[in-house]
Design goal:
This protein is mostly helical and 289 residues long. It has one domain. It has helices at 2-6, 10-35, 41-63, 65-68, 73-96, 99-106, 109-120, 127-144, 153-175, 181-201, 212-233, 238-241, 248-260, 266-288. It is globular and about 50 Å long. It starts with a helix and ends with a helix.
Length: 289
């Protein structure tokens, strides 16, 4: 089975890894939503990194210190500072916004990543990627309702956090040139744990036993999501694989409807559809080429 999968084109294998990413992110979002009413944001982030690091420790010991050593620690720090900022605003969004709207705003990450990839990674900004960028900006305006009286400061904060995610994704793509998947994921947890734990200690809330399963899910799914995404990034360009994540919106909308009685917002769905069309067109062109 493994050999058959290895014979698939790299883009197809990247899509399969992104499927694992989608499932992981859906579970992580639901887990975070279950925690935000009782656990402060930085504390959730600290538990997320702590649980993931505990899962990784046996792998780290087996690999040994030599294979985990890196000469790009500064790049790891940069990546994780921006990623932690994105995670912070993401949880704030989950606290105050409908889950479908937060998910839709996450879909702007490929737009920012594409622009950054052109500047930093020297990837080509061809015609179909430019069209995707233009439709992406149009979708942002629709979701944020700029000029329609529906502007939300929290939504804008989430949008800024997605720029942090994009910087993190571009840094990840750079790291995949020299670092293994285990190195990238291990340093992510090792760096983000103290960054989140220090502010969490100033507003610490003792978790209850009912919070334990959700704290465990947050850590495990965060680990699996970034492992799958990093594997995908090793197989295809950032601007190719991230749009696959759009499949998360309909699934999350259904989950939010059934679990939290959140109505589907037509403007959010319209804006996400506009962004999706641009990225779907771009991915189709990439696949044919």
């Amino acid at each position: 089975m493994k050999n058959r999968l290895g014979q698939l084109p790299p883009v197809i294998r990247a899509v399969l890894w992104m499927g694992g990413t989608i499932v992981s992110f859906l579970l992580m979002m639901v887990s975070a939503r279950e925690l935000v009413d009782t656990i402060p944001t930085f504390e959730i982030l600290a538990f997320r990194s702590g649980v993931a690091l505990l899962v990784l420790l046996p792998v780290a010991f087996r690999l040994g210190r030599t294979r985990l050593a890196t000469r790009r620690f500064g790049m790891h720090v940069t990546r994780n500072v921006f990623h932690l900022g994105g995670q912070f605003t993401w949880i704030i969004g989950i606290t105050y916004l409908p889950l479908a709207q937060v998910t839709a705003l996450e879909f702007t990450t490929p737009l920012w990543a594409a622009l950054l990839a052109v500047i930093v990674l020297k990837e080509k900004l061809n015609r179909h990627r430019a069209i995707a960028a233009g439709l992406g900006f149009a979708g942002i305006l629709i979701i944020l309702r700029l000029g329609l009286g529906g502007f939300s400061a929290t939504a804008l904060a989430v949008l800024l956090g997605m720029i942090g995610y994009a910087i993190s994704h571009v840094a990840t793509k750079q790291l995949t040139r020299t670092e293994s998947v285990v190195q990238i994921v291990f340093y992510m947890q090792a760096i983000q744990l103290p960054l989140a734990l220090i502010p969490a200690l100033f507003d610490w809330t003792q978790p209850e036993w009912g919070d334990a399963p959700w704290l465990l899910f947050v850590g495990v799914t965060a680990l699996s999501a970034h492992y799958c995404m990093t594997r995908a990034m090793m197989l295809a360009d950032v601007t190719v694989i991230l749009p696959i994540d759009f499949l998360r919106l309909p699934f999350m909308a259904v989950i939010a409807w059934f679990a939290y009685s959140e109505a589907l917002d037509p403007m959010v769905l319209l804006g996400a559809a506009v962004i999706f069309c641009g990225n779907y067109y771009s991915v189709g062109k990439e696949a044919r080429s």
